[in-house]
Amino acid sequence: MQIINHKNPTLTACQRLFIEKSLELLHLGSIDSYRVRLNNPKSILKELKYCLEQFREGRIKHFHTIRAKEKDKKAIADEALALLEYDPHYLKFTSVSKKYLEQLIKTIDENNYKKLISTIDIVLNENQNYLVAIFSGAKILIDANNMSLAELEKIDLSLNMLFSELIDSGYSKGYLYRLVFGIFVASLNETVEFNLHFDEFRDVLISDEREYNIIFRINTTRTVLDSISGLANSRITLLDSAPPLLLTGRQALEFSAFSRITPTAKFLQCKTIAKDYLSALKTARSILSEYLDVINLGLADELLEINQRVLVVDSRYPESGNFQNNVNVMDGKYRVEKDHYQSFALKLPAILNNDNIQNETKEKIKSAIRYLRFGNQSTEVEHKFVNYWIGLEYLFSNYESQNTINRLKEQFINAHALAYVKRNTYSFKKDFSQVSSAHQAMVPAYTPESDNCLKTETFYVQIEGALLNDYPLLAYRAMKLHKWFFPGNGRAANATEYLKKHKSNLEIHFTRIYRLRNEIIHDAATNTNNEHIASNLRYYLTFILNELIDSFARITTLQVSIEDYFIQNEIEIGNIEHGGYLLEQLLAVDSSIDFIS
Question: CA-CA distance, 441 to 472, in Å (whole number)?
């Protein structure tokens, strides 16, 4: 969470919440619980329809990945039903009712699903103005400035739906973050009304796609250049020099170096239609990759380097442009402080040299670390995805009869459930520590020197009362955690429903990831460029590696294995569950969460 010092003191609490929550949803450093969700009520119907069509064509082999057979298991159909329960959901039901659609989803099986495909088509066709509906509904909620938890939850849901729909329609998360920051933080001062900036924000985002020219600088040999010249492609043009541009400041200096002519340098121009310049770059990179794949087929040993900086030009302003990094940016921000990696570097050799740890366990940890590195160093999203998945899958593999994906879901969810409450509450306390000392003084229950305050209901209640107007997102988070952890009616502080929802979400998402894994590996799919899911995989692998290394670094006696770690987790989460998921017990769990910035 970013603590925003708003320049406009006249902003209402809900206007501040809109700005602060929007930035949190889009910021790559936000923890996954608070980043924008993958789906909204409309996009989940699109994904469900896609899965049903893939099953019909024989590409998805097992229907239980769409609709789980067991009552206690979850799949994408359950996610669709959950999202349709959103209030508000902003979907229009004209030709078919919401209840009828829900009934079809609840009753689908491998012999009765085609009617649902047609029904979803009808709903999607009647909701082509979904984005406008969300904008209108969110604005009504913001203008009402109702600070009750129920109304704040509606704003939260609306913003999640808004940005997931914008991303689904082609916008990049990086562009949306910069747009929100530029319109609502950098330029929204006391002389400007919020409503004017909101209208500008909406109008920019409901506009049509634009044409962009993407200029790549390449260094290669004459052999490759001759091959490129003879390879026709309507979307890529080989240029001897960069197009003339009128740039100023640092951009002009960079352009001077970028456009410098050398015997081995040429330029590839790719024209593409996109919602924003970062999406245009992503599309151009994909086109260029396909183009160079053909070159690489026969000239793999020839030099071909692509500059790490790429020039992006909006066709509306052909004489100006901006340089962007030629990389895929992953969500999630992990510690890079020297002391963290020194600790990590000391623990790993100790594990590898410990005779009390089985060799198979050591090999799995080494392999997972290697594939984490391969994924981080890969340039293509599919390569990142595959490497992260290999590292994760091998950690959870065994030679018994249990299916690896089922074992992964079960054991990873156990490990993450143990750490989830502690991770999120510690993050909340860290966010609170960033507010001014004057505001901290308004919360007497706060204990900066210890985490005892996280166990007390008073801490969350005091933050809600003291910060609702000045730091509404922080206050809203306190209200939500208070609702989850302190149910009242004489019940002890617990996280039963909080963890139940989290475990369900993880199970559904792992099923989705496994489906995408099959598309890439079995069908050689190249259209699964989803940074969102690759980022999730990187986090999952990083999390479980940190947990394993911290756990095995403490082993001094007995012969132990990764299987013993999983069994210990089962016992611990089972014991906590049997006791009612008490908050105090969950906060006392020994978990490795310090790798998250």
Answer: 17
